[in-house]
């Protein structure tokens, strides 16, 4: 065909460049109108009831632009976005030969699609819609060029000769129209059967059917193409339209095409102004739907934030956040996992979720460092693209950062407190030892400096007492002796607490030690009107223990009870034990011990009595004795009802006597008191 016949057509390079940028086919105005009417006013999703009750299914499956969107692999058809982005045929195609060519191509494509549907139904194919759609799009290359330059299609149809048509295609497109259709189908991600149908639909002999991914389905489309060529809208063979025009199947196909293709593809009442308004309507509906989804996400976040407890733990927050995410459309289940340092959850992993990894993971950060992850398991249909959660991600991240910071600060505070308690626990014994060491130094110096003057005072007082005859003088000297002896005992107690003497165990009777202590204190108790009671049976066995330490212990406990008991009350002392343990208890009916006094009960120089009644060294001295012996001392007191002290001291077995050796000398006690010992060899 001479090039002069293509004056109204764009230059070949311009068409090729536009084809490279083309990403879809225009829609029929009727399809766009019905689709928009199928959308409720407050939704961006079409109503299934309206779609089923209207003519939309019949119209849509005859619209190449709509069917092309359905055949794209890997994506779900979002009608609202398609209506927003797609232009209309009426706005691009003028009237005249170009409009006639478009209507003819449309009716031919519908004829192939309907014939393929009927043949697939008769053959029992499982996916009839797929074959019908591929048949409708068999002329994809012609549709793509017609969308850009309708006059080209009119020029192409004006040339009936097949070789000249191919030369025209090569001259204007740089390739054949069938090969262009295959290229576009592959580039647009269509069903592979669409690419095969666009490339091999006219291969009626099947010489290249082996190159198809589905030769059986391609064969049905080729048969449908041959049948459509016998309709009044055949594109290639005039002879085919003149054969079998009265065949019932052909008449039925012609009638079906006429019904489906009324009104025409190019509608006179569809204007560019209406197209712009319809696409703006679709865009606004989509934006409103996204805003509603965003508002719902904001509302869920605010509700979760309002219901939050300021003292909520990190695990509690993660659980409530996951429940909030489960309310998002398309989310089957959700989980929030802390990943920051010191935030790891102690919950065990659900084995069912471990088998199926999360569909989507949203990372949250605190101060630029990862702190948590939101794991989402989506429904089979997935999370709707309109559910844009990106706007809420910063809010969740800020909240997670606050919870993470609070949790980490609480952990640091607990660590500091725990470290301080540990330091106190370690420092208290050291301070106590330092106090005792200082006390020992003081006691040693005081004992050395004061004992000599005390000895002089006691000696002179005793000498004067032996010579005194007047009663007042005798009383004064005895007071001097008493206070001097008391001072000596204070110095002795100080030295005992500062440096407890080494234990010197030997055979003794602990109950006798208690009785001796009671006898020494009895006069003072009688003077105060306090009754002493000893509970115990016959004298116990002799045991291996330090009687001096036991005497100090008994004196300290009984004197402490004596100082705490009021006139007329009773002190009960109970002794028990055997060869393995010494068990004593001292109970008084005094004023008792408060909780504040109990914290310092065994501190030196702490005394709950008024000044002048002691230095508070008795119980600390008793505690040192029990501690040195490896025993235990317990006490129980109720303010106003008295106090009881219980002492348990384990006893060591006595040492075994040494075995006699050859040449050893044995000393045998003398029979008489003044007889010298007898030596035995």
From TrEMBL:
Its EC number is 2.7.13.3. InterPro entries: BphY/WalK/GraS-like, HATPase_C_sf, HATPase_dom, HDOD, His_kinase_dom, HisK_dim/P_dom, HisK_dim/P_sf, Sig_transdc_His_kin-like_C. It catalyses: ATP + protein L-histidine = ADP + protein N-phospho-L-histidine. One of its GO terms (molecular function) is phosphorelay response regulator activity. It comes from the Bacteria. Residues 657-681 are annotated as: Disordered. Coiled coil: none annotated. Keywords: ATP-binding, Kinase, Nucleotide-binding, Phosphoprotein, Transferase, Two-component regulatory system. SMART domains: HATPase_c, HisKA. SUPFAM superfamilies: ATPase domain of HSP90 chaperone/DNA topoisomerase II/histidine kinase, HD-domain/PDEase-like, Homodimeric domain of signal transducing histidine kinase. GO terms for biological process: osmosensory signaling via phosphorelay pathway. The keyword ATP-binding applies. It holds the Pfam family HisKA. Residues 445-653 form the Histidine kinase domain. The keyword Transferase applies. PANTHER family: SENSOR HISTIDINE KINASE GLRK, TWO-COMPONENT HISTIDINE KINASE. This is histidine kinase. The lineage of its organism: Bacteria, Pseudomonadati, Planctomycetota, Planctomycetia, Isosphaerales.
